[in-house]
Amino acid sequence: MKVLLLTGLGALFFSYYWDDNFDPASLQGARVLLTGANAGVGEELAYHYARLGSHLVLTAHTEALLQKVVGNCRKLGAPKVFYIAADMASPEAPESVVQFALDKLGGLDYLVLNHIGGAPAGTRARTPQATRWLMQVNFLSYVQLTSRALPSLTDSKGSLVVVSSLLGRVPTSFSTPYSAAKFALDGFFGSLRRELDVQDVNVAITMCVLGLRDRASAAEAVRGVTRVKAAPGPKAALAVIRGGATRAAGVFYPWRFHLLCLLRRWLPRPRAWFIRQDLNVTAAAAA
């Protein structure tokens, strides 16, 4: 019976995500500010937007990697592509990044927040210093970028696309500060969506729940701690773009994460069992 139930739920979610009204032409000429664009899902997002003819401003911490991505975007057909290197650990960086994008593009249709500050999994990562740093990069900078970009997005009836994590919906062991920042994102943008709705502000907010990022830094941070495989960057990026373009409230990739989020309250013990299967507790506790 349980197998049949899960199979039925899986088919339901598959049909839901497959049957959308995504129109690639809607992104031609769209003005996009994308953070965390130097590697992994962010890099693939930049390439997808370039193929679709969007005008881009890319930002990340590492200038050399950004230059490589910008060059590839131009080859893929992006009409306009600019970059600005910025460290989101600096409280001054978010405002300067948005102002740069507004100056270069004349406004924004999409703000895609994808950057992350990673930390090694384990007990040492939950020190007050590490937590403050992670909250600035993974939460407060998102708030600052959103606040500065919101007037332009309001004018264009644009979209906020927030790339988050399963750890912002389902807490797990040995990721305390990272999970705290991701839960803060879910609370902030969920509340902001309600505020915009009651104020009749036509700005969509799409929360994207992804698994382990397909990038070397993410894999290294959890090496030996988790058995979870990284989500393929191009496929995860396309799911994010489709969700943002169709103004969906949420995107889950892989789709089974939606089931796990539902299990959080329905079946807490099986949820804990599923999480434990993907966790090397001994390695994490020793980290």
TrEMBL record:
KW Signal (keyword) present: yes
Stored InterPro entries: 11-beta-HSD (IPR051253), NAD(P)-bd_dom_sf (IPR036291), Sc_DH/Rdtase_CS (IPR020904), SDR_fam (IPR002347)
Keyword annotations of the record: NADP, Oxidoreductase, Secreted, Signal
Subcellular location: Secreted
Pfam families: adh_short
Gene Ontology cellular component list: extracellular region
Signal peptide residues on this chain, from the entry's feature table: 1-19
Reaction it catalyzes: cortisone + NADPH + H(+) = cortisol + NADP(+)
Entry annotated with the keyword Signal: yes
Single Gene Ontology MF annotation: oxidoreductase activity
Function: Unidirectional NADP(+)-dependent cortisol dehydrogenase (in vitro).
Descriptive protein name: Hydroxysteroid 11-beta-dehydrogenase 1-like protein
Species name: Colobus angolensis palliatus (Peters' Angolan colobus)
